[in-house]
Amino acid sequence: MHCNGLKLNVTKKNALVDFLSCLPQMLTKAAKRSNIAHGFVANGLVGDEATHSSEYGFPDFDLMLDTVRQEVTQEEYQLCRSTFSGLFQFQMKNGHAEETEHNRLGFPMDKDPSGQEVSKDHTTVSQESQQRAKCYNHEHQIDNRNERHSLMMAEKERKEADLINKHQKVLQESETCATKIRDVGDNKDALLQRISSCLQPELKSFIHVRMFKTMTGPSRDENWTWPNKGKLEEAKNGVDTLINRAFECVSNPPILEQPESPLSDITKTTKNARHKQATIVSIEVNQSKFSKEDNASSFLQDSMWVHQIIQSFDTENAIKSTDVPQDSLRRADLLQKHLEKRLGRHCQVRIKDEKKRDHLPLEHDVCKQMSTPTVCNHGAVWSCENRPLLLEGR
Q: pLDDT higher for 92 or 344?
């Protein structure tokens, strides 16, 4: 995944296009009550009334307990029944029934594969995979995540400030050392004498600024260690000391670069993530069903549909009127015909066997379904300027 989208070869890209073309009718056929409700009924989340009624039945307590892999004792069964009401209220209030609450009520602790009890008392919002089920969009859970995000950002800001301060300190110490050894000339002994008068931190900073571009210093694969400052006599005898290393890089210009701001990178990532978050939009229409012969302009003439579209996407209230001019109606119908022709060419190129073209949900009216009816009646996934939008119809 790149910042500009997916980078796919032609084969994978065509396969993705074919799948997205089939997706509207796949959802229409698969996402039916008869295909979905039985799974929720089987595990007790809803009653069997859901298989034939629009009103969900109450959860089945015994069926839900049957999903537990180990055998439930009579004591555990009675504990579940007696504490259900309190746990339910706790869950509704906090969005999550915490481990400490289960422990307080007497529920046995979880066990690992070896049979040892595993304590989850200290799992937090940063370890949600280890927690019991929770409602992520509950107000309390949202506050917890926002609080954690604030703490993380504060820590990043502290690290950024520390890095900048460290960078400034290194530059200052390097300049102090450079000032002490300035105007010595080519006399090696005099230069070594001046270098030896510098403090050890000043020598390290002087060398760092002229040897490394980043504040991290040498990379891990470099065979580099910081020696002791040493004495003047040792430096004159060729012993590896900070004095000698500083002498070797006296003529080198400073190459240390300004540290990048990690906070700015996080901010960019956060902004990009916000742009890529799914937005749920529900669109209803006055008509209960649109026929295949309906033109795109017929939807633009539905005042309620147009109003909901504007309300969903015009967040800055730039559109003041819901009246669609006649020119836009005409262009909408022309665009529909153009999309239908493109679909026909796509089917001819991608599906050579005419008999197999029926597997696509895109017969004669697919372009209309993708542009309007599919959005209103079935639901479709679209992408607009790298911002995925989940359009959910009723």
A: 92
Least confident of 209-213, 280-284, 285-289, 328-332: 285-289
Distances (CA, A) of 281 to 182, 221, 310, 387, 392: 70, 53, 11, 13, 6
User: Could you tell me if 197 and 211 are in contact, meaning their C-beta atoms sit under 8 angstroms apart?
Assistant: no
Least confident of 95-109, 242-256, 265-279: 265-279
Helix, strand counts (H, E) of the chain: 16, 5
The domain spans of the chain are 147-248, 278-393
320's tokens: 């003041």
* Upper half-sphere CA count for residue 178 (Cβ side, 13 Å): 18
Residue 37: burial class (beta carbons within 10 Å; 0-12, 13-18, 19+): buried
Query: Per-residue pLDDT averaged across 233-244, rounded?
Result: 89
Tokens matching residue 145: 């995540």
CB 270 within 8 A of CB 278: no
Give the chain's end-to-end CA distance (angstroms, integer): 32
% of the chain with per-residue pLDDT over 70: 77
Q: Residues 350, 14: contact at Cβ < 8 Å?
A: yes
Handedness of CA 182, 187, 189, 190 (dihedral sign): negative
